[in-house]
Amino acid sequence: MLRAILLRLAGAIPVLFLVVCGIFALVHLAPGDAASMLASSDAGPEEVERLRLLWGLDQPLYVQFGKFLLNVLHLDLGISLRYQQPVIAMIAERLPATLELAVVTLILAVGVGVPLGIAAALNKGKWIDGLVSMIAVAGVSAPAFWMGILLVLLFSADLHLLPSSGRLPYGTPIAESTGFYLIDSLKAGQFQTFGLVLAHLALPAMTLAAGMIGIIARIARSALIDVGQEDFISTAVAKGLSRTRIVRHHLMPNAAIPITTIIGLELGVLMSGTIIVEVIFSWPGVGSLLFQAVNVRDTPLTTGVVVVYTTLFIALNVLIDMFYFVIDPRVAAAGGVRH
């Protein structure tokens, strides 16, 4: 197990390097630069050139990239050109909002997608199977920005049930300690605030979860049907075991690997999807920060956010790999782990 994890971490280093190279090149290939975009509207060419000299934008790209890599090795992501604040501090301030949204979305997607897949598999060919398939196709096909706008129009503009932006109403007091508002409000006993946080999370989480629910439901259905055709399931049925026990103790454990795999793959979609959703719902997370940084060619902030996103995705996939060892002893045996 340890060897497999170390190999995965070692393989992540070139991936991270290539991602950084790609985003650095794309930012500089785009027209304009941070000096011309962040200078005041009445600034002359001399002022713009002064900003370029101040921020080192006049240096060759390989020099700028080399300095950035050296800073990253020292865990320093540089200073934001727009906000004139340390990039790592800005990301650390906004990261809890993005992670909280991602975790709630994942819980919602798994909590709805897996039961739908089970229901479809146990009722193969019936109307429930068709309904689940229709829901899955609709969720996967709908773009996130379109789904978000529709949910805002329905639940916020028409029904006035859920808020359409932000993490909390302006001025709402919260004893912030971890940055995760759900945890902070519970720790402080602020149950009304906890309800407000959930209400603000609802629409963005539903928007992100829609596509994931469809994919997870389809994969869960296929995995359960495949396992259901195995001989040991026929033996369990012949023994007279209840349907619930067969599903819980035989079908689900053996179908867990493909379901876990698709959840791991969807984590990447989830992390990238937060960018669009955070912009739509004015969610103060890392995704909206990246959107603002790209718009003004803020290279340190853009590359810093991408580095954090890539690192998170790699870390999550390593955790998924570790989870394989827990849910399927055959993976541990193949990796040479002794019990």
- Strand percentage lies at under 5%
Largest sheet: none
- Please report the total strand number as a whole number: 0
Gyration radius, rounded: 24 Å
CATH domain fold name of the domain at 87-295: MetI-like fold
Secondary-structure element string = HHHHHHHHHHHHHH
How many alpha or pi helices? 14
Name given to the CATH homologous superfamily of the domain at 87-295 = MetI-like
- Mean pLDDT over the residues: 84
CATH class of the domain at 87-295: Mainly Alpha
Structure class: mainly alpha
Low-confidence stretches: none
List its salient traits.
mainly alpha, MetI-like fold, 339 residues, globular
Write the layout of secondary structure elements.
Blueprint: H1 2-29, H2 34-38, H3 45-55, H4 61-73, H5 87-122, H6 127-141, H7 144-158, H8 181-187, H9 191-228, H10 231-238, H11 243-280, H12 286-295, H13 299-327, H14 329-334
Helix pairs in contact: 1-13, 5-6, 5-9, 5-11, 6-9, 7-9, 7-11, 8-9, 9-11, 10-11, 11-12, 11-13, 12-13
Task: Provide structural commentary.
The longest helix is centred in the middle third of the chain and has 38 residues, at 191-228. The protein has a domain at 87-295: Orthogonal Bundle (MetI-like fold). The mean pLDDT is 84. It is mostly helical and 339 residues long. It has helices at 2-29, 34-38, 45-55, 61-73, 87-122, 127-141, 144-158, 181-187, 191-228, 231-238, 243-280, 286-295, 299-327, 329-334.
Structure summarized in a few sentences:
The chain is an all-alpha fold and 339 residues long. The protein has 14 helices and no strands. It has a domain at 87-295: MetI-like fold (Orthogonal Bundle), CATH 1.10.3720.10.
